[in-house]
């Protein structure tokens, strides 16, 4: 499951700094995902600090909670705290500086901020307790610390974690090169598959979820939450462990308070980010609309595997759904071969076919091509259709290598990357997709300068 943490590399260490009572432990507990975590208690000068393995969606890290660094009033204690803090800061890869948006800023925080500012470490400001109306009363005070824009969160309610995730992603996003020899991917049956069911309101998402899980299943049980509204429902399909991302809460809320426009922008993006494979449900009675296509392109842009379920097949007109399939083909031409499965969630028809497509997409999403095969293909593709001339010389593509899976990502070493037209990269992608039989899965090319 380690998606962006650099396999085989030590995990990044996140250290939560802040005065007592701002909510550091609450955030720590949330990120440490109690069950998985082995919590080490380290005796500290003033109080203990704890460290555990933590995760937020697909980001994995070490998280360190600096229990209570307070008492700057007393000179001896101040010295000790400063030392302990600087030790922790030194250990950190990323600092999370947490404040309380309700209480405002105290003098000990100003001191702590001074210390934090002296380091070169990346620092993310977090303003906690932001839930509800009075939550943000003193939010502006946080700017006084001069450490940048705070991310408003509520550690207790799990709000704002998607923004925290967004802020963290760039530090993990280095396209780490996996070493297929040293760390072979887990056998398929051991990897849980994180699956989301997305789509506009009323297309039949809840019905599908219930049909998959079985009627008896209650959707709002005590499941681990990943955001305020999204929970993971563990499930098995055949022998495969599936984690269904359920954002029913979000859907309910958006129905009440938001327009349809707002719905698609907010809730589905969140859902998509937490998933690996996304089933986009469409209503076979409704003509394909802009929102459907936006969701589909979001899935592709986020590099997730997309499977389309054309629901309400039981009562749809052949012509209606042929129209949809035709339009989908035209609109999603950048990724040829996305599976479109007609289903009836209500009558439980074709659900096996849908799940088979999901599992197959997951396989493609993990697909790895050997460097020698890749370069044989590259040579063939270039011979068939050479790169364009640029200022009299030809842009040369020297070499290709797959640097990661999920989704398959390839580095192309190019003499003049900026001069390689998009149309040529598209040609290569189509050719790669056809040659290695990778229908419907997003592929990524990274251009790198090579002599
Ligand atoms: P720490 O001492 O800084 O680690 O803070 P704790 O995590 O122990 O939290 C201190 C208090 O703040 C506790 O009573 C928490 O329940 C409360 N708290 C933590 N997070 C939130 C939040 O998001 N909103 C509100 N209203 N209270 C919170
Ligand atoms: P959601 O808003 O996407 O979760 O949609 P729901 O699951 O609440 O379904 C919306 C409506 O579509 C309900 O009235 C369902 O009974 C109906 N529906 C769902 N799936 C099917 C289907 O396969 N066939 C038909 N005819 N109706 C369906």
From TrEMBL:
Q: Which domain of life does the protein's organism represent?
A: Bacteria
- Annotated binding of GTP 1, by residue: 18-25, 65-69, 128-131
Give the GO biological process terms.
ribosome biogenesis
Residue positions annotated to bind GTP 2 are 199-206, 246-250, 311-314
Query: Which Gene3D superfamilies does UniProt cross-reference here?
Result: 3.30.300.20, P-loop containing nucleotide triphosphate hydrolases (3.40.50.300)
Q: Is Nucleotide-binding a UniProt keyword of this protein?
A: yes
Species for this entry: Caedimonas varicaedens
**What GO molecular functions are on record for this protein?**
GTP binding
Q: Which family is annotated?
A: Belongs to the TRAFAC class TrmE-Era-EngA-EngB-Septin-like GTPase superfamily. EngA (Der) GTPase family.
Q: Explain the purpose of this protein.
A: GTPase that plays an essential role in the late steps of ribosome biogenesis.
Q: Whom does it interact with, and what assembly results?
A: Associates with the 50S ribosomal subunit.
The family database entries (InterPro entries) matched by this protein are listed as: AAA+_ATPase, G_ENGA, GTP-bd, GTPase_Der, KH_dom-like, KH_dom-like_a/b, P-loop_NTPase, Small_GTP-bd
> Keyword annotations for this protein?
GTP-binding, Nucleotide-binding, Repeat, Ribosome biogenesis
State what protein this is by name.
GTPase Der
Residues of the EngA-type G domain: 193-366
């Amino acid at each position: 499951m380690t998606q962006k943490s650099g396999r085989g590399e030590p995990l990044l260490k996140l250290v939560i700094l802040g005065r007592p009572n701002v909510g550091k432990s609450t955030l720590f507990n949330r990120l440490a995902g109690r069950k998985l975590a082995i919590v080490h208690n380290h005796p500290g000068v003033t109080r203990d600090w704890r460290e555990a393995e933590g995760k937020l969606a697909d980001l994995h890290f070490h998280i360190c909670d600096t229990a209570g660094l307070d008492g700057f009033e007393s000179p001896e204690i101040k010295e000790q705290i400063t030392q302990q803090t600087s030790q922790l800061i030194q250990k950190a890869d990323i600092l999370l500086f947490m404040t309380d948006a309700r209480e405002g800023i105290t003098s000990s925080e100003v001191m702590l901020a001074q210390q934090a500012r002296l380091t070169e470490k990346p620092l993310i400001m977090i303003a906690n307790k932001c839930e509800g109306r009075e939550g943000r009363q003193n939010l502006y005070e946080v700017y006084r610390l001069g450490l940048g824009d705070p991310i408003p969160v509520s550690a207790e309610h799990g709000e704002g974690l998607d923004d925290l995730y967004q802020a963290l992603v760039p530090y993990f996003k280095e396209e780490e090169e996996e070493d297929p020899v040293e760390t072979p991917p887990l056998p398929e049956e051991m990897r849980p598959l994180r699956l989301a069911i997305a789509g506009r309101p009323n297309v039949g998402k809840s019905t599908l979820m219930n049909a998959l899980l079985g009627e008896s299943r209650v959707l709002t049980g005590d499941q681990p939450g990943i955001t305020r509204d999204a929970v993971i429902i563990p499930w098995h399909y055949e022998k495969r462990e599936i984690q269904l991302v359920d954002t029913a809460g979000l859907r309910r809320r958006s129905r009440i308070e938001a327009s349809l426009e707002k719905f698609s922008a907010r809730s589905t993006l969140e859902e998509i980010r937490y998933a690996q494979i996304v089933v986009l449900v469409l209503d076979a009675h409704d003509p394909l609309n802009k929102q459907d296509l936006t969701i589909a392109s979001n899935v592709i842009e986020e590099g997730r595997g997309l499977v389309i379920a054309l629901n309400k097949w039981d009562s749809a007109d052949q012509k209606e759904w042929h129209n949809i399939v035709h339009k989908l083909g035209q609109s999603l031409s950048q990724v040829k071969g996305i599976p479109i499965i007609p289903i009836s969630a209500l009558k439980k028809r074709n659900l096996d076919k849908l799940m088979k497509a999901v599992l197959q997409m997951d396989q493609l999403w993990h697909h790895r091509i050997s460097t020698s095969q890749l370069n044989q293909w590259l040579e063939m593709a270039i011979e068939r259709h050479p790169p364009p001339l640029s200022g009299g010389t030809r842009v040369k593509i020297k070499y290709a290598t797959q640097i990661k899976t999920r989704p398959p990502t390839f580095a192309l070493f190019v003499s003049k990357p900026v001069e390689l037209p998009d149309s040529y990269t598209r040609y290569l992608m189509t050719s790669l997709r056809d040659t290695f039989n990778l229908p419907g899965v997003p592929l990524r090319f990274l251009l790198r300068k090579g002599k």
